[in-house]
C-alpha cells in the first residue's frame, strides 16, 4: 500500500492550505525537560456511576451490536399527575531493482483501506418496542404518588432541620472540595500519564528550513547521551542543502542542530544537537519483534505544530508493507514492514516515538493512510491508520549513520529486478513479485554472480514467499528484505513454469542512496 508522510510542510506548496494552529515559538511546558523532573498533572476525578435502567428498551440498548454500529437509546416520557410529579414510565422505543541499480520508482497507487460505498445509514436498526399497557395503572400511580409524597415529606423535613441548624439565613451555596492538593497527586509509572511524564522531556519538536525558505515541523527523540536525535528523513530533508535545523524540548529550550546522516529508503535520519546539555536522557528502546497485535501504544509528537501532544491506541497490525514519499518531485520512495496503529497520528507527528505500555520505543511514527490524496495545498488528518518504522530496523540504521565514516546507509539486496506492477493493469498483481525480463537500462534482470543468480533464480520466476512472509507484490518483497541485514540468509519460495520451488539466498548489499 502507498501512503503519505505526515510531517507538516511550509513554503509555496502550503500557502493555500487551510489555516491551522501555528506552532508556538516556545512549546507548552507540560513537564520539565533535561534540567528538572517532570511536574505532576492533576488526575481527573472518576465519573459518577450511571444508574442502571431496567426497562426492556434500555436493556436492549446494552446488547452487543456489530462494530461501527450504535444502539439507539431508549426514549422516556414523563407521566404527570395533577399537582404532583410522578416517576417516568417507559414509552415505546513500475519495476524495482532489488539489485540496487538505480532507485526504485514509486509503487503503484492502491485504494485506501476502508469500507465500500453506499448510502446505508450509520447505526443499527431499532425495532419498534412494545407499547406500554394501557389498563390497570391507576392503582400503581396512586401508590407511587403516595410513596413520593411520603418520601418528599421526610426528605423535606430532614433538609429543613439541617438547613436551619447550619444557616439561619437560608442563603448561600455549599460546595465540596477534594482532599489534598491536586499537585500532590502521584501517578503510577505504568499509566499513560506516568509514561508521558517520563518520556516528554526526551522528545523534541524539529523545525527544518531549506535555503529557499521552505520547510516544516516534525518530531524526534533523544537517541543517546551524546546529543543524537532520531527522526524521519522527510522531516529534515529540506535542511539537507544549506538549510537550518532547530530542536525544541518540552520545557521550551531550543538548540540548533545539524544532520549526521540520512537514509531515504528507510526514511530514517539522525541529527545532532549543537552545544547539547549534559543531562540528556535517551528513551529506552524496546523490541519491535516481540510486539503483538492488541498491545497498547502511546504516540508523542507535534501534530499540526502542536508540540508535546500525546495520543493512545493499540497495535492494529504487524508487518504491513508500506511505501511512502513526500510531495517533492525529487523524493525517493521509502519502504517499510510497518507497525500499524490506531493511535491518532497527524502531520507533524513524523519522527516521533511510538511507545509501548512500559514507555519503551517500539517504532518511529512515519506515515498515515488518509481518506483522500493530498493535492499539495492541504494535509489530511488521522483516520486511525498510522504506520511506524519498527525500532529494531530504525536503530540499526541509525547506528550505521552515526558510526560509518561516510554516514551512509547500507541496504540488503537479492540482486534481481522485480516488477512493481502488472504491465497490463498498472496495479500490483497480488500473485507475487515477478522477476522482470530485463533490468534497468537494458541490463540483466538477475545480476551475474549476484545473490539471486547464485541461488538459481531466473528472469520470469515469481517469488511468493520470503521465509514465513507471504509476498504478493514487489513492494512487499522489498519491505520484507529491508528488515534484514546484508549477509543474512533467507529462504525464498518461487514458482517457475507452474511448479513451486524453494532456495536459500544470502543477501548482498548496496551502500548509499544514489
From TrEMBL:
Keywords: Hydrolase, Membrane, Protease, Transmembrane, Transmembrane helix
Biased composition (Pro residues): 24-45
Annotated region (Disordered), positions in chain: 1-116
SUPFAM superfamilies: PDZ domain-like, Trypsin-like serine proteases
Compositionally biased spans, kind Low complexity: 13-23, 46-83, 89-102
GO molecular function: serine-type endopeptidase activity
Protein name in UniProt: Trypsin-like peptidase domain-containing protein
Source organism of this protein record: Streptomyces beijiangensis
Amino acid at each position: 500500500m502507498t501512503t503519505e508522510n505526515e510531517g507538516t510542510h511550509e513554503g509555496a506548496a502550503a500557502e493555500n492550505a487551510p489555516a491551522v494552529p501555528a506552532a508556538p515559538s516556545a512549546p507548552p511546558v507540560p513537564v520539565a525537560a533535561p534540567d528538572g523532573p517532570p511536574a505532576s498533572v492533576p488526575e481527573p476525578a472518576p465519573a459518577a456511576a450511571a444508574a442502571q435502567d431496567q426497562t426492556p428498551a434500555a436493556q436492549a440498548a446494552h446488547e452487543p451490536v456489530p462494530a461501527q454500529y450504535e444502539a439507539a437509546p431508549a426514549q422516556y416520557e414523563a407521566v404527570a399527575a395533577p399537582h404532583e410529579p410522578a416517576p417516568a414510565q417507559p414509552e415505546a422505543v513500475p519495476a524495482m531493482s532489488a539489485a540496487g541499480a538505480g532507485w526504485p520508482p514509486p509503487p503503484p497507487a492502491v485504494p485506501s483501506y476502508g469500507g465500500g460505498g453506499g448510502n446505508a445509514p450509520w447505526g443499527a436498526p431499532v425495532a419498534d418496542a412494545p407499547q406500554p399497557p394501557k389498563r390497570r395503572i391507576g392503582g400503581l400511580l396512586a401508590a407511587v404518588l403516595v410513596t413520593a409524597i411520603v418520601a418528599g415529606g421526610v426528605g423535606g423535613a430532614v433538609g429543613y432541620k439541617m438547613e436551619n441548624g447550619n444557616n439561619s439565613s437560608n442563603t448561600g451555596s455549599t460546595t465540596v472540595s477534594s482532599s489534598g492538593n491536586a499537585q500532590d497527586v502521584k501517578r503510577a509509572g505504568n499509566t499513560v500519564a506516568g509514561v508521558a511524564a517520563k518520556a516528554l522531556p526526551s522528545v523534541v519538536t524539529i523545525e527544518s528550513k531549506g535555503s529557499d525558505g521552505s520547510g516544516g515541523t516534525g518530531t524526534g527523540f533523544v537517541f543517546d547521551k551524546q546529543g543524537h536525535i532520531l527522526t524521519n528523513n522527510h522531516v529534515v530533508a529540506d535542511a539537507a542543502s544549506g538549510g537550518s535545523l532547530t530542536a525544541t524540548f518540552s520545557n521550551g529550550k531550543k538548540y540548533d542542530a545539524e544532520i549526521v546522516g540520512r537514509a531515504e529508503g528507510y526514511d530514517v535520519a539522525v541529527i545532532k544537537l549543537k552545544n547539547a546539555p549534559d543531562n540528556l536522557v535517551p528513551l529506552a528502546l524496546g523490541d519491535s519483534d516481540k510486539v503483538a497485535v492488541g498491545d497498547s501504544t502511546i504516540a508523542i509528537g507535534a501534530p499540526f505544530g502542536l508540540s508535546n501532544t500525546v495520543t493512545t491506541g493499540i497495535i492494529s497490525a504487524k508487518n504491513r508493507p508500506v511505501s511512502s514519499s513526500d510531495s517533492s518531485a525529487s523524493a525517493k520512495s521509502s519502504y517499510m514492514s510497518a507497525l500499524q496503529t490506531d493511535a491518532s497520528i497527524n502531520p507533524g507527528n513524523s519522527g516521533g516515538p511510538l511507545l509501548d505500555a512500559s514507555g519503551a520505543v517500539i517504532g518511529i511514527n512515519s506515515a498515515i493512510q488518509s481518506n483522500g490524496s493530498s493535492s499539495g495545498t492541504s494535509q489530511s488528518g488521522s483516520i486511525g491508520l498510522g504506520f511506524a518504522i519498527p525500532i529494531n530496523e530504525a536503530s540499526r540504521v541509525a547506528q550505521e549513520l552515526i558510526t560509518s565514516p561516510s554516514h551512509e546507509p547500507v541496504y540488503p539486496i537479492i540482486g534481481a529486478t522485480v516488477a512493481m506492477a502488472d504491465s497490463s493493469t498498472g496495479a500490483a498483481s497480488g500473485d507475487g513479485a515477478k522477476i522482470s525480463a530485463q533490468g534497468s537500462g537494458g541490463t540483466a534482470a538477475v545480476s551475474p554472480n549476484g545473490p539471486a543468480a547464485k541461488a538459481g533464480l531466473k528472469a520470469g520466476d515469481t517469488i511468493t514467499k520470503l521465509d514465513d512472509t507471504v509476498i504478493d507484490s514487489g513492494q512487499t518483497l522489498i519491505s520484507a528484505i529491508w528488515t534484514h541485514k546484508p549477509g543474512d540468509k533467507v529462504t525464498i519460495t518461487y514458482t517457475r513454469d507452474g511448479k513451486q520451488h524453494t532456495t536459500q539466498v544470502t543477501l548482498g548489499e548496496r551502500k548509499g542512496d544514489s
